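hiii so my PI (J.) wants the whole complex modelled not just the main chain, which honestly fair. so below is everything: two entries, each one labled with what it is. i double checked the lines twice but i was tired so who knows lol
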Amino acid sequence: ATPKDGLTAEVVVVKSLDGIATRSPDDVTGKIVFYDEPFASEHVNTFRGYGASVQKRIYGASRAAKLGAVAVLIRSIGTGDDDHPHTGSLRYTEDAPQIPAAALGAHSADKLAQILEKNPKAKLFLKMNCQTLPDVLSYNVIGEIKGSENPDDIIAVGGHLDAWDTGHGAHDDGAGIMHSIVALQSLQTLGYQPKNTLRAVMFINEENGLRGGKKYAELAVENKEKHVIAIESDAGGFTPRAFRFKGADSSLAKMQDWMQYFPDNTIDAIRAGGGGPDIGPLNKADGTPVAAIIPDAQRYFDFHHSPADVFSAVNKRELELGTASLASFIYLIDQEGL
Amino acid sequence: ATPKDGLTAEVVVVKSLDGIATRSPDDVTGKIVFYDEPFASEHVNTFRGYGASVQKRIYGASRAAKLGAVAVLIRSIGTGDDDHPHTGSLRYTEDAPQIPAAALGAHSADKLAQILEKNPKAKLFLKMNCQTLPDVLSYNVIGEIKGSENPDDIIAVGGHLDAWDTGHGAHDDGAGIMHSIVALQSLQTLGYQPKNTLRAVMFINEENGLRGGKKYAELAVENKEKHVIAIESDAGGFTPRAFRFKGADSSLAKMQDWMQYFPDNTIDAIRAGGGGPDIGPLNKADGTPVAAIIPDAQRYFDFHHSPADVFSAVNKRELELGTASLASFIYLIDQEGL
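here's the output for the full assembly
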């Protein structure tokens, strides 16, 4: 937060962490640093664009504070042509004071950039009253269907329960939660008796430290649970395009053979790659193979961490296709193994 | 239209043309027939679902009129969970009187179905004042970049200019028009000198008889124009998924080799199949090879022929990716030939 009555200062415009690295304390001391970098939209996969753009949100405040800045603003890391500010995690490093940091919607960032171009000495008034509250105890939520042949072998599928509460968290990650629950519910409705135990896991606190995922992994190791695989859905409720898999090459080859069961226009590929944030700790702890469903990425960052991520932004048919693809994938793993 | 003061009649519910075929004049005479069939949403490709659902809109009025019905209503052929009525062409056959026909939005159709389930003798009042105006002269709109090596060899790309004016016609087919114009504009902006003549064609009157496409084909034959290929975009401004091609097997094989130039998550396949409605007449007239860009189909029938097909329903990034894919495809054809 800012001081109670706000703060007023001139604004230094830089593009990115590379930009701030070229500045000296003389340039920055007592000023607000404005990271004005557009989303890296040249990547066809928007998650790559996000990865290329997000470092300034995470480390920009401390880098600027180290040079004497009194606050930072960033152009929101999103693809939407709107004025929604996008939130997200920020890491204060120990080598700098913790200064206020805020994101501007794209239109507001355009406006500020225009003003500063005309008048580089313009002063900006910033007043923020956010606060960090103490931690409270929270929980992962887990449901399962016991396996009929190998009840101790678990196929887990999940998403995360928490969201940045500027919106509903509908695509991030309400969609993943619904994918996971409804995929298992669909198999149950069909009267399917799984060989292995099918488990839907709703991880808590992905957004701010992966605490649910870390605790899940810790308990899995402690309880000697055996996971056949853990699957994540945390990329929105859009038309499904692919699965990603991290595990034995022989397992990947086997899965790619299953492509024949996915009709045209559903899943295009099963390819090598990581699982997802919440199941990363489990993979790291005991080597559990991990996978993820990859929906079409083009619209995700219109909504991600913003007030636009609401229930009505999820298309029912696209969400259902994701659920159906996941249910098919889980069924194949349960029947055929890895 | 109905008589000026409207008409009031009981309602007979059937599902489809198969449903009306089982009815007799005794069931239907003097009544309104309500075709209450949900969209065939079990097809992953929604265009197949549309194909399976659309016959009752086209022929349902005449079939019901032949049995003595005074009007027909249909549940709109769309996938949206809303109350937009979807329009579209209807064909009166000569063996029956031309009775009024209207579409209901999904929610209104639900409500009517509920009322009729409780009270099958319920009467419905229908008043419509639409009219068919005489034909007027209209035009295709064409722009081209002359080829530097083979100016008489034409690569045409197009969509259609007309739309059902309940909405803006943004996906059907404003997107196709923008795809076509901007694909050529992009190549020009890059300073590209095409070998062949690149032509963007905005066909008129696709929706009500393909007259623009037919006239284009007629004039192409008359003027002995040589088309290398004609490409159509008439399936919305969504994330591109594939191209379809109808022509020599050797040309298709050559194109499939170009898949290497499309990075992950843009074009997944170039496959055999028809071109598009507006270029069909040209293909038929002189055997011109035809192709089409295939965007993701899941949301198309939320918008198609309804008040929801507005500018804001088109995602900028998805539209741009379609344009870029088309520009790449045209470039490859221009460079490599078929």
